[in-house]
Amino acid sequence: MLITGGASGIGRLLALESIKKGASHVIIIDRNEDGGNNVCEEIKKLGGHATFIHADLSSRSSIEQAIESINSTFKSVDILINNAGIVTGKPFIDHSNDEIENTIKINLVACMLLTRGLLPGMRLKGNGHVVNIASSAGMAAHPKLSVYVGSKWGLIGWSESMRLELEQEKTGIKVTTVTPYYIDTGMFNGVKSPIIPLLKPEKVSKQIIVAIEKNKIFCRMPWLVYAIPFVKGILPQRWFDFVLGKVFRVYASMDSFEG
After folding, report:
1. 80, 143, 179, 258: least CB-packed within 10 angstroms?
2. Where in the sequence numbering do the catalytic residues fall?
3. By the 8 A CB rule, do 189 and 257 touch?
4. What pTM did the predictor assign?
5. pLDDT tens digits for 155-211?
6. What residues are paired with 80 via a beta bridge?
7. One-character DSSP codes across 29-53
8. Domains in the chain and their CATH numbers?
9. Could you report the per-residue pLDDT of 67-85, keeping only the tens digit for each?
C-alpha cells in the first residue's frame, strides 16, 4: 500500500489502520521527512513494515523520481491512496498565482502523475486498487473555497473516467472515490458547521479502509453527502443554493476559517 500525505492527519491514520487490517508493507510519500519517518516507526511498533519516500508533490520531477524509486524497489503497488492535499480558504480574487497553481498541482495533477506511473505495474499483475481522496466540496460549490473545489471537482471527474476505462479494459484494477465532508483536522481549523458536524478523522480512516475492502465505487460521508447528486439534479440552482446555504449553512462554513 502507498499513501501520499501519510506523515500526518488522515494519511497517518490510514497507514496505521491498514497495518491493523493486515497490510504487509506501507509506503509513505510526503515532504515532511520527520513526520514520515515517525509514522514508519509507529508502523514498525505495530509489527508492520514501512518505507518513507521524500517527495514534493507540487514538482513533476520529484514525483517522477519517487515513481522510479518505487517501481525499481517494489515492482508494483497493490493499493495506491492519493490522499495528499492542500487548501487555501479565501475569495478567488485574493488568491496568488502560486496558490492557484500549487493547489491544482498537489490536489489533482500529482494524483494523475503518480497513478499514471504506477498503473503499468498493476496492469501487468492484473489487479490493484486506486483510491482518490476527493471531497464533498467537489460535488457542490463553496464560497471561499473556489480553487480547492475546482481541484476536487476535477479529481472526481478524472477518478470516475479512469474507473470506467479500467473496467472496460477488464484490467482487474478497482477505483474508489472518497468524498467526505469537512474532517476535523488542522487542515480546516476554524471551519464552523452548526448543522452538519465535522467528521472525526479516526472514523473517516476506518470507513475508507472498509470501502477498499468492499471495492466500493464511492465512499461518501456522512450519509447526507449521498443525497447531493440527486438533490442537485432535481432542484433549480437557486433552490439548491437556498438549501445548502440557508438551511444547512454550508456556504458560511469558511467565514471563520483559520487554516
Report:
1. 258
2. 148
3. yes
4. 0.96
5. 999 999 999 999 999 999 999 999 999 999 989 999 999 899 999 999 999 999 999
6. 2, 130
7. EES-HHHHHHHHHHHHHTT-EEEEE
8. 2-252 (3.40.50.720)
9. 999 999 998 899 999 999 9
